[in-house]
Amino acid sequence: MKQWAKSIQVALVFIGTVVGAGFASGREVMQFFTRFGYWGPYLIILSTLFFVWIGAKVMLLAAELKAKSYEDLNKYLFGEQTGRWVSHLMLIVLLGVNAVMLAGAGSLFSEHLNLSYQTGLIVTMFACFMLLRKGMNAILTINTFVVPLMIGFTVFLVVETLRHPMSDHWLSSASELSPWAAWLSPFLYAAFNLSMSQAVLVPLGASIGNARILRRGAWIGGIGIGVMLLGGHLALSARMPGIKQFEIPMGGIARELGAWLHWIYVFLIFMEIFTTLVADIYGLTLQLHERTKASQGMLTAMLLLVCFLAGQFGFGPLLSTLYPMFGLLSLGWLFLISRDRARTPNSPKPPNPPASTSGLLESRKL
């Protein structure tokens, strides 16, 4: 029972890391799936398979390598020098993603709470800084609370959407977009989200260390992400194309359901944005601390300040521009990790096992 509880906790962190500003707001689901019409469900199923498979591989490799940060994993995959440059690139990409998270919180405050965009940025930054003083335990705790609520509300939203006159639109709506763009979309989406999730999945896998717990957590988490994607796609498809006018489309849908449900869902969207921001900033802080040995509190504050400055461009423009571009950059990473055949942490070690990540790199030919 303890192992199952731990696996569920791993799954909730996995889901909470992926379900960020773009996902919870509906913008990401619309960008990668809903706009492709009836292809959407098939694209989501393909993405779900990637989440289960690659999510497990990332955590198992991290446990095997006893990786302190995602740079250790990248050095193993790409080699010492290239891995360092890939980690530099990922640092920039993660900063961009976190700027999107912060901008999403600002848009939520301005569009649904009648507060200024800047207020949303500042309140979210302060709350993130305070929570991160508690480390990984805070990330585990907050996801254990928020993710089940988000899953429950997604189920409720699906039930309500089934009563909508256009509820079957997700199975019949056509798209004028290229089929090539449609079938590239799940690869971009999975590559982007999984490569970005390294910042959390690597230290999580290393800290848990048990292959059975990690593999089971990846299955539960990956399928949970897929179910939430399908639920969001169904709800958005039934309200296309009018729902495109909202910066936070899912908030617009919640507004139809009544004042109380609207406020509850707005709160949940904010918490999902917040959990992903907290997790990613934590991973970046660990990465920079390993390099510079500077105070983690100071590094966290600096990262949040950079995200605040980048967030001035706005949520919609940042997401629609950065996410597809980052997805393309992540495809190489997805290819390398998908072809790697790593041992599990509990499997027998080969003769003369390498003593460290650097030893692994010397003995491994990519």
Describe the structure.
The protein is mainly alpha-helical. It has a single domain (2-342), classed as Amino acid/polyamine transporter I (Up-down Bundle), CATH 1.20.1740.10. The chain has 16 helices and no strands. Helix 1 (2-18) packs across helix 10 (179-208). The longest helix is centred in the C-terminal third of the chain and has 34 residues, at 259-292. The radius of gyration is 20 Å and the shape is globular. The protein starts with a helix and ends with a helix.
SSE succession: HHHHHHHHHHHHHHHH
Percentage of helical residues?
over 70%
Low-confidence stretches: 342-366
Write the CATH architecture name.
Answer: Up-down Bundle
Oligomer: single chain
Q: What is the CATH top level name?
A: Mainly Alpha
Quick one: how many beta strands?
0
**What is the total domain count?**
1
Which structural class do you get from the secondary structure elements? mainly alpha
The overall pLDDT, averaged over residues, is 78
CATH topology: Amino acid/polyamine transporter I
Rg:
20 Å
Largest sheet: none
Shape: globular
Number of helices: 16
Proportion of residues in extended strands: under 5%
Straight-line N-to-C gap: 40 Å
Name of the CATH homologous superfamily: Amino acid/polyamine transporter I
Q: How is the topology of this model organized?
A:
Layout (H helix, E strand, L loop, with lengths): L1 H17 L2 H5 L1 H6 L7 H26 L4 H9 L1 H33 L4 H15 L4 H26 L7 H4 L6 H30 L2 H27 L11 H8 L2 H34 L3 H15 L4 H25 L17 H7 L3
Overview features:
single chain, 366 residues, Amino acid/polyamine transporter I, 16 helices, 78% helix, 0% strand, globular, disordered C terminus
